[in-house]
Specification:
Shape: elongated
Number of strands: 0
Structural class: mainly alpha
Strand content: under 5%
Order of helices and strands: HHH
Distance between the termini: 42 Å
Number of domains: 1
Length: about 90
Amino acid sequence: MGSLFELNVAYSILCFASATVAFALGFFTLQYRRCTPYAQPLGFLLFASGMYAFGYAFEIMRGDVAWFFLWLREEYLGISFLGGLFL
């Protein structure tokens, strides 16, 4: 059984992969925003989701409180737009 640090790193890698996919799909949809009217809101939604996943990955990577609150602010920047963009 792995230690807690190894599980944090493994979960952070999964969050980084999720954020990378969200950013890549966001760039892809914004390239085709003239083809369909729903591509631009979807691209912004994917960027906000990627920002949240990226911040969460750094948040759980270390146990330091100052590090936690630094990335919690960046995570909140992404999650604050998710509700409005989802509508």
